[in-house]
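uroporphyrinogen-III C-methyltransferase structure dump, as promised
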Amino acid sequence: MNCPSKVYLIGAGPGDPELLTLKAARLLQTADILFHDALANPRILDLARPDAQRVDVGKRGGRISTPQLSIQAQMIHAAQRGLQVVRLKGGDPFIFGRGGEECMALRAAGIAYEIVPGITSGMAAAAYAGVPLTYRAVSQSVLLVTGHEAPGAAPVDWRRMAGVADTLVIYMGVERVEKIRDGLLAGGLSPSTPALAVEWATLQQHEVHSTLADLPAQIARNGLKSPAILVIGAVVEMSACLSWRPSGSGALPQAACL
Ligand code: SAH
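structure tokens r here:
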């Protein structure tokens, strides 16, 4: 039997291939086999050697996703055969990416692994919208939270989340935005709290700016769907000053700066 190789869990970043780290790009070129998610941009997969085996374990476009245990078993099997294995995940592997579960499985199988962090979509969505997630006196704390709990996990207590941090960055929340909005309002956030939804951050970067109260209606009106990030908090309003990409109308927002 070959000597087992290492598995590299690599963050592919939010979508724009230029937001990949140099380390990720280097390791992709060394892969014999590449397991990738639906959210990893195909242009990033092109960095791998043409003869590298590509295994799509994602679930977009009506296809069924590969069950988590099967992905883990395939990675372990490939590493045991001595192949250089890359597991490419959208954003950062350890932010809502099940990277932790995969490391647990690798560890249990005695396979060495290395994590290459990626730019998580929540940070990228905010940066491309001109929203600084922290800003002195406006946002001293940021919470990354999921809108979609794992089966069997306790539901997110949105009333409590309202008081936990100045700025909330919500992953997988676009389909449950009404429930999230209602919980945050019940928890004491003002209906006029600035809110932002970003679909396909750094690629189409489709942005909807709203208030917390109106966010579900604005998302529905604009047809935003997954993958999308919600950002809620006073700091969102700063995009009026700091936005650096042309909006749909080509003009930057005109609101007064803080
Ligand atoms: N590990 C990833 C998150 C995976 S969970 C990361 O660090 O970004 C999947 C969720 O991430 C999606 O439902 C969406 O909320 C968010 N997401 C991932 N890529 C995105 C993108 N390009 N634009 C907007 N949201 C994105």
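The beta strands are 7-11, 33-36, 53-56, 85-89, 113-116, 142-146, 167-171, 194-199, 206-211, 228-232.
lmk if u need the other ones
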